[in-house]
């Protein structure tokens, strides 16, 4: 309902637009202020009937909760035509608007368009204080990891979680005609209204001054979310989708996932291996510097978080760093096979999906998507861009093709809004990737 102060402001503005209000000087003669000649009720009636604002907007200034004042307003012509008006076309237009009065939503705004309104959460999902309310039940937690101090090139991914949420403003409901392959259950799915409780938990606090402390904060945040109870599959912990942040954050997500689901198989979409031996990247400076966005998968395997021979890269195209084939051999030792970017020019997307599924099997699967797997022409807002990458359509088709896998967690990383275009195309793709994650995690809600 419009507050009295707002109504008074509107009345003053309306008064300025009408020539019917008359003012006289203040009686004390000591100031230049003015007082109205008529009382307030008469003023209101004059303003409503004669002001330009009322002529243009009519009952827009009246509450729409069914009070008598609304009925009275609706009984009046919306546009008054001067008796001497001779333009029949104009009179006809006025008659149309008077006979077809606009109806406004109720003042609770519940049914109003939500794309640009309210606090920005991912896809307008519910925001909850997940770290304060340990009794909160949820099936899928979306959480941000604002961290970018372990990168080798561009920083800025600490702002990625906010950028991805901004890119998700047009998501939140509706069945997609292109989700999944033809005949897929995904074609019948609206993840946001699937019966799964999806919650946006905000961002985990991560200090920018000490990587060791920051990654510990992230691990404790992930562990806290896994300690909540789920609703649909109440014998298992909630699944987490993490919005990065640079790719180092995946290590802590894998650690918490391992503690709750056992060893996982990783499907890693990236233009870079990220299994580099720390001696090759960072570790030659200090041991702490050896843990970064190019070595985290080495540490994930070394610590036993991931399987030994069921992991796979998709979209690799960046050059190796060490001489010869040392990087490739080390990658194999970390349990990874790979589909390079140009393989997609040779084999079909269905074959790519088939190869991924054969590789990871039926165990718990974690999907990690570095947005730089997408070609730099489509996703310029990233930390280490490489040419010759996947199109956004290819990435989303492959992701949706993974229907049926036991996806227990996922992340989207290396989104740098500061390097994106003014159309936010990188953030839009990243948000759609999360939408695909949600589809994979909720598709079992669709019954045959």
TrEMBL record:
Residues 1-21 form the signal peptide. It comes from the Eukaryota. InterPro entries: Ureohydrolase, Ureohydrolase_dom_sf. CDD domains: Agmatinase_PAH (cd11592). Coiled coil: none annotated. The keyword Transmembrane does not apply. GO terms for molecular function: agmatinase activity; metal ion binding. GO terms for biological process: putrescine biosynthetic process from arginine, via agmatine. Keywords: Signal. Belongs to the arginase family. This is WGS project CCBQ000000000 data, contig 00015.
